[in-house]
Batch of 3 targets.
Target 1
Amino acid sequence: MSEFDGLWVKSSYSNTDGGNCVEWAPSVAGTGVVPVRDSKTPDGPSLAVSRAAWAGLVEYAKAATL
């Protein structure tokens, strides 16, 4: 179980077939870090990235042709 259980939000860009899913815990982002995990393995590890790194990743994903 993750220390952020109940706080996870799945990306709106995640596939409905269960693939390529990322989740993040926005309510924790105010602490200066953004927890990120693979929704296919919710009991697996999560990454804690800086808010700046998360914002950069989101902007890159928005601009990329996926």
Target 2
Amino acid sequence: MKTRSRFSAFLVLCFLVALIAYLDSPFSFIHKDHSYMTSEPAVAQPVDTEPPSDVPVLEQRLEDVKKIDGYYIEIYQEYEVYYDDKGNVIKREPTSKTESIKYWDKNQ
């Protein structure tokens, strides 16, 4: 008898949880006046991605390659590049940031 009452209490609890989950979902009859989905897909509008001429674009350029103790070391310099409206480079200024990549020469 005790296991039967526990089982029935468990079933009632599962039913209540399922009912509450349904009523809280956007598909229940309570939320029928609210639209959560559209029948028409959203159309993405193209965006003009050209940067304005007064804002620099940061670029990395390879400055030097050295071979030291069986390793190649590539040194890159960061530049601020300014473009005009047609995409031509107006000026290119180096920044103080440099990066290096070190990798082993497997042919040695």
Target 3
Amino acid sequence: MLGSRTDLHIFDAGSVNGTRYCNEILLPYVRLFRGTMGLQFLFMDDNAPCHRTVAAEQLLESEDIERMDWSARFPDLNPIEHLWDFLGRCLAARALPPVTIREL
């Protein structure tokens, strides 16, 4: 972790279900980051199905992690959408398109 950011996590092949989300994101990153940030920590995700599983909800509750809720009807209000837009523009501006996941 650097400052208030984590490294980009790239999932191996396959879909991300609630169990995988808990094991690969919530436990190793979010729980640790919450411990570092203390009470000022506010977690933000979106309404992806893996984010809303019973397992994910229970894990966040058991770790006393407060989730910032965002309306699914207004995705443009979600700050992460600005990041995706920025990344998309950066990729489009490259002379050679990325070929591998690591190049992204």
